[in-house]
Design goal:
The chain is of the alpha/beta class and about 425 residues long. It has one domain (about 30-305, about 360-395): Rossmann fold, CATH 3.40.50. The chain is built from 16 helices and 8 strands. An 8-stranded mixed sheet has the order 3-4-2-5-1-6-7-8, with helices on both faces. α7 packs across α12 (about 250-265). It starts with about 30 loop residues before the first helix and ends in a 21-residue tail after the last helix. Magnesium ion (MG) binds near residues 54, 76, 77, 174 and 177.
């Protein structure tokens, strides 16, 4: 299988004349095989904010549709132009087919509407009168549209619904722009802990028919909370929780079910990061967390890298040459010198990015890596997604510069 850490991890001898420590090579990641495999049913793209999760999800979904699968991509916060080119002009919380001329399979896309998803759960799990009560409750209204964690929880909920419909060969899930990539995994528990929380239970206690003997301690507590939160809010919460009481079990159960779904064979996580210290640190936490939860990791997508057009000329030599050329004052010398300096900068940037990638790999030698070069502009249409899809799924060694797609720069050989 694609994520199987092959025998490729090998320590290399340092290059002659340098004292560099040996570089561990990351195993290649075969996303092409992974998305084409009928056994793959769910791919979750996660990582910290702004690294390219949404774009990666859409590019993988397009590639899978072109490979013949019936795919739905659940996006959370697509950039406006990307949403437009996927036909997601308005939030309708249901998948819409995207016209992909010539594709063997089908691409469908949807954008999560967390409030609608929450409303649907309420409607599906209570009587009409009760649902009306809950939906009209001001506390519910603010919880369903702004509680930290609601978006993560609703993304999981929607994933569960899509999976249950059995209409899709493959579901690709984008994850919310959380402060931390880990929020996504913690959401179901946080949500059910919150709804099930001690404070809420205490608050709702007086409204329960069977609860007659509120302790003096509780009454005091209740009065203090009431003072802090305001009486109306407290009454809203109590009413909401009382109405939701019958759904407590349902929440916990569904949260657990979705969590289990993520651990089932057929689900793969793709961690996305940019070659920057913060994004890679977050990716590291995520990799550790997935492994401790027994969740299958396909590998790391290192997005928006800056590989140089050629690695034949080192930064030092390019800089030296730029100086020499500039001194000749010949026609076109300035332009040539500028091009050489750009190349020198590009080599230095690539070396920094490779260094960060190598640091990640030496900490997680078993994690397959795939680098995706930065496109010249935003990725916001099918053509852009296709280019990115090619970088994600193309053969490992088949690149214009000959540098394998596991790397930004070729590995030094002894
Ligand atoms: N490989 C890439 N090259 C150029 N731009 C990219 C690339 N990947 C993503 N982007 C751009 O970066 C921005 C953030 O990407 P997005 O997928 O929305 O990140 P996230 O979902 O992780 O917050 C978008 O404007 C997107 O077009
Ligand atoms: Mg996003």
């Amino acid at each position: 299988m694609a994520a199987d850490p092959g025998p490729e991890t090998a320590a290399r001898r340092p290059a002659r004349g340098t004292a560099r420590t040996p570089v561990r090579l990351a195993p290649p990641m075969d996303l092409d095989a992974l998305i084409a495999d009928p056994a793959t049913r769910i791919v979750v793209c996660c990582g910290s904010g702004g690294v390219g999760k949404t774009t990666t999800s859409a590019a993988l979904a397009l590639a899978a549709a072109e490979a013949g699968r019936t795919v739905v991509v659940l996006t959370i916060d697509p950039a406006r132009r990307l949403a437009q080119s996927l036909g997601l002009e308005e939030l309708d919380n249901e998948p819409r087919r995207v016209d992909v001329p010539g594709a063997d399979g089908e691409l469908h896309a949807m954008m999560l509407d967390m409030k609608r998803t929450f409303d649907d759960i309420v409607a599906a799990h209570s009587t009409p009168e009760r649902a009306e009560q809950i939906l009209a409750n001001p506390f519910y209204q603010s919880l369903s549209s702004s509680f930290a964690g609601t978006q993560e929880y609703m993304a999981m909920e929607k994933l569960g619904q899509l999976r249950a419909s059995d209409q899709w060969d493959l579901i690709i899930v984008d994850t919310p722009p959380s402060r931390s990539a880990l929020d996504f995994l913690d959401a179901p528990n946080k949500m059910s802990r919150f709804l099930d929380g001690t404070m809420i239970r205490l608050l709702m206690a007086p409204s329960r028919a069977g609860f007659k003997f509120a302790s003096a301690g509780f009454l005091l507590f209740s009065r203090i909370v009431s003072k802090i939160l305001g009486g109306q809010l407290l009454r809203d919460i109590s009413a909401f929780v009382a109405a939701l009481d019958t759904m407590f079990g349902g929440f916990r159960e569904r949260a657990m079910a979705t969590y289990e779904l993520l651990r089932r064979p057929g689900t793969w996580f793709v961690v996305v990061a940019t070659p920057e210290p913060d994004a890679l640190r977050e990716a590291s936490y995520f990799v550790d967390r997935l492994s401790s939860e027994g969740m299958p990791l396909a590998g790391l997508v290192l997005n928006r890298t800056h590989p140089p057009a050629t690695t034949a000329l080192s930064a030092t030599r390019a800089e030296g040459a730029a100086e020499e050329v500039a001194e000749t004052a010949a026609e076109g010398a300035e332009l040539a010198a500028a091009a050489l300096r750009v190349h020198a900068e590009r080599m230095q940037l690539a070396a920094r990015e490779q260094h960060l990638a190598d640091r990640f790999t030496s900490a997680h030698p078993e994690v397959p890596v795939r680098t995706v070069p930065a496109a010249a502009g935003d990725v916001h249409d099918l053509a852009g997604l296709r280019v990115m899809g090619e970088a994600l799924t193309g053969p490992d060694a088949d690149t214009p510069t000959g540098t394998p797609r596991t790397r930004v720069l070729p590995a030094r050989r002894g």
